[in-house]
Specification:
The protein has 689 residues and is α+β, with helices and mostly antiparallel strands. 49% of the residues lie in helices and 15% in strands. It has 24 helices and 21 strands. The strands form 3 sheets. Strands 2, 3, 4, 5, 6, 7, 8, 9, 10, 11 and 12 form an 11-stranded antiparallel sheet that branches. It has an 8-stranded antiparallel sheet with strand order 1-14-13-19-20-21-18-17. 47% of the residues are buried. The N terminus is likely disordered.
Length: 689
C-alpha cells in the first residue's frame, strides 16, 4: 500500500478549515436545492428544468451501496464492476467465475438475472420537516422526542406507499435539521449484461486503490426489466461522441453514502479516539482471516474475493480519514469554527454539550452495539437470515409505527427480496467466518462477558460455528418461507440452532439498540437539529446537507494537480496501461488480460484512447458508479474512485489536491468494440453511431 503523503495532507487540511465560505465546486447538493446561482456566476451555465429532470430520473441507486444510470431507452444501466461485484460473486461458480473472467450476454435472452439486486430511481422529494417535528411535544425528553419522530416518519412512509404504490423513505438531513420524503420507483428484475475481467476492472489492485494515475475499466452493465420486458425509463443519458477535455465543466449525479462535515468537535474526537480505532482493528482481523482462508485453495480464494476487496477498500479509506483527524492543525481550526458558531448562537450552546455527552454513551456502548446489534460477533449470512426471520415474525405483531425501522411495512418488499434470495451459500466458508468472528468477539470483550458465555458455553468458537452451520437448514429458501409463514408458532417449534442463537442474543441486542437510539441517535437528532437552525440563520440554504445515500448533484472541472513539484495530468491513455504493466513485471495485480493484449497486437485497439481522468467534483463512497456528464447532459465518464487526498473528504472539501477519478467514456466504447466485440451493446449505448 502506498503511504499517504503526510505533508500534502496537512496542507490540504489547513486549507479546508480556513476557508469560511463554500469553495467554488464544493457540495453534494439535493436536487430540490441546487446551487443554480453559483453555477451561473462561476461557469455561466444555467441548467434547464428538462436537463435537471433528465439527470435526476436517469440516476439509479443500487441497494448494495453504489450508484448507476440509465444509458439507453431499453433499461440499460451502467455502473462499476466493483458495484456489480456482489452480483458477479453470487452468479459465479467454480466452473464459471464471472467475477474473474467477465461476462457478455450474447443476446437479451442470455442476460443473467441478479439474485437479490434492487435498483431505485428518485421520482419525488418532499419536505416533511414540519409534520415530523409536529409529533414532538414541548418539553419532551430527547429519547421520547426521537421515538415520536420515528413514529411520524413511519406513518408518513406508510401513507405515501399506500397512495403511490412506490418505495418511500423519510430521510434525516442536517443530522436532524430537516426531514425529506424520498419516493423511489423500484426495479427488482435486474439482469447482468456485461462485465470485463477483474484484472482490467481493478488493474493495480489494492496497491493502486485511491491512487492516480490509474488504468482501470471499472464498468459493468445491467438491464432493468418490468413484467418480463426491458424497462422503458422516463429518461436516459445519451452517450457523448467526443468525451471531455481538460478544463471542461462536468456533473456527477449519484448517491454519496455518508459524510461528517457538519459534526461537532466532540463527535470528531469520538471518531478519532474510539470509533475509527475500533473499526480499523476489526477490519484488520477480517482482512487477515480472508487472506488466510483464500490461501487454502483456488475455490476458497474465489469465495472470499469479494469480501476481501470490501475490507481492503474500507481499511485504506478509514486509514486516510483517521490520518486527517489526527492532524492537530486541522482539529484546532475545526475547534475555532465551532467556537465561532457557538458565539453567534448562544441560545443553542448546550446543544454541543449534549452531543458530547451522547458520544460518551456511544463510546461506552460501542463494542456491545457493534458485536450484538450489528451482528459483527456472528459474521455469517446464515445468522443474518436467522435474525431477520426471528425479528420479522416478532415485529409483524407490533403496530407499524412502533416497529424497528427495517421491519416497517414500507420496507418489507425490499426485505423479502434479500431474505428469499437464491444466492449461493458455502457452508465451509460460513463456518470459518463465524468461528473467526466469535473468536475475535471473545478476545475483544473478554471470555467472562455474559453474552459470550451464553453463546459459547465453554466450547471453542470453531466447535460452536461448526455445529451452527451444520445444524441449520436456513440455506434452503423454502425453509425460510415456511418459518415466516408459520409465524410465532413455527419459530417456537423449530429446533434450528441458528434461529436459537438469534433468539438467545436478541434481548441483549435490542437493549443496546434502545440505548443507542435513545441516548445517542435520539439526543443527536434533536441537538443537531438545533445546530442546523444556527447554521441556517448564518448561511441560509447555502449549506448543503451531509451525504445520506440519497441522490445528489456534484460538479467540478476536469483538472490535474501539482504535488511535490510534479504536475499530475488529468488524463491517462490506453498505452499507459501496457507501459505500467511492463514496468511492474506483468504480474498480478498489474497483469493485462489476454483479450486486451490480442486487441493491441492485432492493431484494433486505439492506444491513444483516454482511459481514466480526474476532476474536482465533490464525491465520496456511494458515488461509485455515478455517471459523469457534460453541459449537454451527455455521458463523458463513470466515477469509480478518488485519489489518496480525497480520503479526508468525509470531513471537508478541497480542490487543490483531492480529485474524483473516472473511467473515460471513450475507453468504454473502445473496449466494447475493439476488445470484446460487443457490437450490439455498443450500438445500444451510442445510439447506433
Amino acid at each position: 500500500m502506498t503511504p499517504i503523503r503526510r505533508t500534502a495532507l496537512i496542507g490540504l487540511l489547513t486549507l479546508m478549515t480556513t476557508t469560511p465560505r463554500l469553495l467554488a465546486d464544493e457540495g453534494m447538493w439535493a436536487f430540490n436545492n441546487l446551487p443554480l446561482e453559483r453555477l451561473e456566476a462561476k461557469y455561466g451555465f444555467e441548467p434547464t428544468e428538462e436537463w435537471i429532470a433528465r439527470l435526476r430520473s436517469s440516476a439509479v441507486r443500487f441497494n448494495n451501496g453504489g450508484s448507476g444510470s440509465f444509458v439507453s431507452p431499453d433499461g440499460l444501466v451502467m455502473t462499476n464492476h466493483h458495484v456489480a461485484a456482489d452480483t458477479l460473486q453470487k452468479l459465479s461458480t467454480a466452473e464459471a467465475d464471472y467475477y474473474r473472467v467477465g461476462f457478455l450476454a450474447g443476446s437479451r435472452e442470455a442476460e443473467l438475472p441478479a439474485p437479490d439486486l434492487e435498483l431505485n430511481v428518485t421520482v419525488a422529494i418532499a419536505d416533511v420537516t414540519d409534520r415530523v417535528n409536529a409529533a414532538v411535544e414541548d418539553g419532551m425528553p430527547d429519547a421520547e422526542a426521537a421515538q415520536a419522530r420515528r413514529s411520524a416518519m413511519a406513518a408518513i412512509e406508510q401513507e405515501a406507499s399506500k397512495e403511490n404504490g412506490l418505495r418511500n423513505d423519510v430521510v434525516t438531513l442536517y443530522q436532524g435539521g430537516q426531514y425529506h420524503l424520498y419516493t423511489y420507483k423500484k426495479y427488482t428484475d435486474v439482469r447482468l449484461v456485461f462485465a470485463p475481467e477483474f484484472e482490467i476492472a481493478f488493474f493495480g489492485g489494492d496497491e493502486d486503490n485511491f491512487e492516480y494515475p490509474r488504468y482501470c475499466l471499472d464498468v459493468a452493465f445491467f438491464r432493468a426489466y418490468e413484467d418480463g420486458e426491458p424497462a422503458r425509463p422516463e429518461h436516459f443519458l445519451p452517450w457523448s461522441a467526443d468525451g471531455s477535455e481538460a478544463g471542461d465543466l462536468v456533473f456527477v449525479a449519484g448517491h454519496p453514502g455518508r459524510t461528517s462535515r457538519l459534526n461537532t468537535m466532540a463527535h470528531l474526537e469520538y471518531f478519532r479516539d474510539t470509533g475509527f480505532p475500533f473499526l480499523l482493528d476489526l477490519i484488520r482481523n477480517r482482512e487477515s482471516f480472508l487472506n488466510e482462508y483464500g490461501a487454502l485453495g483456488e475455490e476458497q480464494a474465489r469465495q472470499a474475493k469479494e469480501d476481501l476487496f470490501g475490507y481492503q477498500n474500507s481499511r485504506k479509506a478509514r486509514l486516510g480519514g483517521h490520518e486527517g483527524l489526527q492532524n492537530e492543525a486541522f482539529m484546532a481550526r475545526k475547534a475555532e469554527a465551532e467556537r465561532s458558531l457557538r458565539a453567534q448562537a448562544p441560545e443553542y450552546a448546550d446543544a454541543w454539550d449534549r452531543i458530547a455527552a451522547s458520544r460518551a454513551v456511544a463510546a461506552e456502548n460501542l463494542a456491545a452495539y457493534n458485536f450484538l446489534e450489528r451482528g459483527q460477533a456472528f459474521e455469517s449470512r446464515l445468522f443474518q437470515i436467522a435474525r431477520t426471520i426471528a425479528r420479522l415474525v416478532a415485529e409483524q405483531k407490533t403496530p407499524n409505527e412502533d416497529r424497528l425501522r427495517e421491519y416497517r411495512e414500507s420496507a418489507l418488499a425490499s426485505l423479502d427480496l434479500a431474505l428469499y434470495s437464491e444466492a449461493p451459500i458455502y457452508p465451509r466458508f460460513e463456518a470459518a467466518k463465524l468461528a473467526n468472528s466469535l473468536d475475535y468477539w471473545r478476545a475483544t470483550v473478554g471470555a467472562d462477558d455474559p453474552v459470550v458465555q451464553l453463546v459459547l458455553k465453554g466450547r471453542s468458537p470453531e466447535e460452536v460455528a461448526r455445529e451452527l452451520v451444520e445444524g441449520t437448514r436456513l440455506a434452503d429458501v423454502s425453509v425460510r418461507k415456511q418459518l415466516v409463514e408459520g409465524g410465532p408458532e413455527a419459530i417456537k417449534a423449530t429446533d434450528d440452532p441458528m434461529i436459537a442463537l438469534a433468539l438467545a442474543v436478541d434481548p441483549e441486542s435490542r437493549a443496546v439498540r434502545k440505548v443507542w437510539e435513545d441516548q445517542v441517535e435520539g439526543v443527536e437528532s434533536a441537538q443537531y437539529g438545533r445546530i442546523a437552525e444556527a447554521l441556517f440563520r448564518a448561511q441560509g440554504d447555502a449549506v448543503y446537507p451531509d451525504a445520506t445515500f440519497t441522490l445528489r448533484l456534484a460538479f467540478g472541472t476536469v483538472k490535474g494537480w501539482e504535488e511535490d513539484g510534479e504536475s499530475i495530468p488529468p488524463y491517462t491513455v490506453v498505452e499507459g496501461l501496457f507501459e505500467k504493466s511492463r514496468s511492474e513485471g506483468d504480474v498480478e495485480p498489474y497483469h493485462v488480460p489476454e483479450s486486451w493484449i490480442e486487441a493491441r497486437d492485432s492493431g484494433r485497439l486505439g492506444l491513444d484512447t483516454p482511459m481514466n481522468f480526474v476532476s474536482t467534483a465533490d464525491i465520496i463512497g456511494g458515488n461509485s458508479g455515478s455517471p459523469v456528464v457534460d453541459r449537454d447532459g451527455e455521458v463523458v465518464g463513470l466515477i469509480f474512485d478518488g485519489n489518496i487526498h480525497s480520503l479526508i473528504l468525509d470531513f471537508g472539501y478541497d480542490d487543490s489536491l483531492a480529485r474524483a477519478v473516472s473511467v473515460d467514456s471513450r475507453v468504454i466504447a473502445e473496449a466494447l468494440g475493439s476488445v470484446y466485440r460487443a457490437e450490439a451493446l455498443l450500438r445500444e449505448l451510442t445510439g447506433g453511431r
